[in-house]
Amino acid sequence: MNSLKGHPKGLYLIFATSTAERFSYYGMRAIFILFLTQALLFDKELATSIYGSYTGLVYLTPLIGGYIADKYWGIRRSIRWGAVMMGLGQFLLFLSASMLHTPGWAHGLMYGGLTLLILGNGCFKPTVSSLVGQLYTPGDKRIDSAYTIFYMGVNVGAFIAPLACGYFGETGNPDDFKWGFLLAAVVILLTIVIFETQKSKYLLSPDGKQLGVLPDARQQALSAEQAKSASAGEQSSRKWRNLGILAALALVFGTLFYLWLGDDWVSVGIFTACLVFPISILLDSSLTKIERERIFVIYIIAFFVIFFWAAYEQAGASLTLFAAEQTDRVIWGWEMPASWIQSFNPLFVVLLAYIMPAFWAFLNKRNREPSSPAKQAIGLLLLSLGYLFICFGVKDVQAGTKVNLMWLTGLYFIHTMGEIALSPIGLSMVNKLTPLRFASLMMGLWYLSMATANKFAGMLGGLYPEAGKEKILLGFRIETMYDFFMIFVIMSGIAALILFLLSKKLRQMMHGVE
């Protein structure tokens, strides 16, 4: 019987593959900025700029990888070559860290490694996510819990990676960073071995067919009516017209963002892509009215997801600074490293991943389960409540006074509940609402919202209070941590309220898909 605990065995192959790949990603990320500042001796401004561009582009390239998978390679080949490129990228970082006494080589290898990691992630990330939903028949109620299990695998890797790669790489000796990168390279090699040896046995559709062998666009032919709707000449004319529209929009949006952001070309590119690429799919003449409305639902929710991740991703910047500077981390005489707090979130995800699906199932049996848009709104509300919780901890606290670790722990716990309500449900929703021929590309667009959020998070993180520097947002001075955290309480709360109000209409536009 091709099932394990109620799910296809292929789900657990994807779980293992994703766990290994995410270990590689989060392990490298845990020590990367330290490597830049302590080994390559970059100043903090340059180091954070490189780090921000890297994380933003990691979520942008799934658009390209999704297109290649849908049109040319298919899912299996994209996963394989994505993992190979990431493995080579980690190995180049290992070589970079091994050549600290020759800065020219160290810098060049570092940039080369980042390039391969970005491209490899672009091929891997959207395809492995879209593969989960294809293990089930349309309408299968297990899909939401399947994406939650998949998401748990991601966080198992994210929890272990900083501890392991940090243990070997962050020793106080700059020459040891290479061992952290080498460990990440070895684990991504394990990803390739697991996937290539087991894929034919377990990656099967409900009717027993091999999944991901051919590009999805070839498997879903247009209907006879659509094929006859226009002549070849008309189709060619429409194609060039659409390209012209997209080029004009890219020029207009790119110019506006350039006038706003200056020569920060990564930000200009990400924000422009966030507007232009979604329009490119809507211009496809093969879309039916129902398909178009379902895609609109994805776009609307993706817009609100930007606000979620922009607040949530403060974990890697402002919340880490808060942990290091204003949090009492002494436990029974031992001071916990500030970086270890980054493992709180994935640990909570692993623990809550069993509870949240059971809670949704409990409500479903009583016909009280919220719709997918409502679950996204709940995620945003919980994010707002997490920041409100820590606001109580920092209110009226004098500068230089450290607060109890309980406040930061509570914030991460509440945020994790919001993450599980929003992120895996969002992945499931994209899979269920997207026409098969756009499966990986739409998953890439979903990740594009996260790329935009990462850059937006950096802008908001710049408002972190600093002595002697004036920080102003919309005319309001940001002078204390209470002021800073209230930004995210208000932003997330307003987004949650609006999405709650829209959820009924969005559910109608989903046309019965839940």
From TrEMBL:
GO terms for molecular function: peptide transmembrane transporter activity. The keyword Cytoplasm does not apply. Pfam families: PTR2. InterPro entries: Dipep/tripep_permease, MFS_trans_sf, MFS_Transporters, POT_fam, PTR2_symporter_CS. GO terms for biological process: oligopeptide transport. It is found in: Cell membrane; Membrane. Belongs to the major facilitator superfamily. Proton-dependent oligopeptide transporter (POT/PTR) (TC 2.A.17) family. This is Di-/tripeptide transporter. The lineage of its organism: Bacteria, Pseudomonadati, Bacteroidota, Bacteroidia, Bacteroidales.
